[in-house]
C-alpha cells in the first residue's frame, strides 16, 4: 500500500469523524443531548451506528469533542514551558492567551452550547470527570519532573481548582447572555486575581 493511499485513508477518517461530530452537535443543540440517540446521529451523518461508536465510544464525547485536548491541556502546557519558567507562570500565560483567542477548550463555546451542557446532568457529570482527569495528568507530570508526588498533587490540586473556577465563571457569564468580548475582559481580570493569589505559595515551584 502506497504512502498516498494511507494518506487518503487517514484524511477520509478525519472527514468522517468531523462529519459525525458536526451532525451530532446540530442535533444536540436542536433536541437536547439526552433526547438525541446514537441512531439519530448515525442517520443524520449517513453512517452505521457502529461507525459512530467506533469514532466516539461515549456519547458524551460527541458533545465534548475537545475532551482529549482538554484533559491533557494543563500537563501539556507545563511540559512545553520555557527555561526559567515555573509551572504557575506557564499556566497563567497560556490561560491568558487562550482567553485572547476565545479558545473553546477553556470554555468559549457560545450560549446555545453552554445551555445544552448545563441542561444535561450526563454532560455536567462528564465535564466534572474531565476536570479531574486534567488535574491528575498535571499531577503526574509534576511528580515525574520533581520526584515528589505528594507536593505535585498538592500543587496540581490548587492549579486545577483555579482552572475549574475560571471555567465556571466563563460558563456563568455565557449563560447570562454576556458578549464574548465582555466575557474575555472579565475573565482576564478574574484570572489575574486568581493566579496572583497562588503566586506566594507556588510561584517558584517547578521552575524549568
From TrEMBL:
Keywords: DNA-binding, Transcription, Transcription regulation. GO terms for molecular function: DNA-binding transcription factor activity; transcription cis-regulatory region binding. The keyword Transmembrane does not apply. Pfam families: TetR_N. The keyword DNA-binding applies. Transmembrane segments: none annotated. Residues 14-74 form the HTH tetR-type domain. Residues 37-56 bind DNA. This is AcrR family transcriptional regulator. It comes from Nonomuraea muscovyensis. The lineage of its organism: Bacteria, Bacillati, Actinomycetota, Actinomycetes, Streptosporangiales.
Amino acid at each position: 500500500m502506497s504512502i498516498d493511499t494511507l494518506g487518503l485513508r487517514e484524511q477520509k477518517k478525519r472527514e468522517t469523524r468531523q462529519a459525525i461530530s458536526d451532525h451530532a452537535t446540530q442535533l444536540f443543540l436542536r433536541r437536547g443531548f439526552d433526547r438525541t440517540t446514537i441512531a439519530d446521529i448515525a442517520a443524520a451523518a449517513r453512517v452505521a451506528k457502529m461507525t459512530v461508536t467506533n469514532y466516539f465510544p461515549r456519547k458524551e464525547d460527541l458533545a465534548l469533542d475537545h475532551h482529549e485536548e482538554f484533559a491533557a491541556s494543563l500537563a501539556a502546557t507545563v511540559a512545553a514551558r520555557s527555561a526559567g519558567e515555573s509551572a504557575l507562570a506557564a499556566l497563567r500565560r497560556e490561560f491568558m492567551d487562550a482567553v485572547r483567542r476565545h479558545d473553546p477548550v477553556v470554555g468559549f463555546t457560545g450560549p446555545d452550547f453552554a445551555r445544552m451542557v448545563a441542561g444535561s446532568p450526563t454532560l455536567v457529570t462528564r465535564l466534572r470527570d474531565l476536570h479531574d482527569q486534567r488535574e491528575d495528568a498535571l499531577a503526574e507530570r509534576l511528580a515525574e519532573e520533581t520526584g515528589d508526588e505528594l507536593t505535585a498533587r498538592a500543587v496540581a490540586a490548587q492549579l486545577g481548582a483555579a482552572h475549574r473556577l475560571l471555567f465556571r465563571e466563563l460558563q456563568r457569564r455565557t449563560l447570562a447572555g454576556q458578549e464574548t468580548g465582555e466575557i474575555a475582559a472579565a475573565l482576564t481580570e478574574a484570572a489575574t486575581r486568581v493566579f496572583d493569589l497562588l503566586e506566594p505559595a507556588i510561584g517558584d515551584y517547578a521552575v524549568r
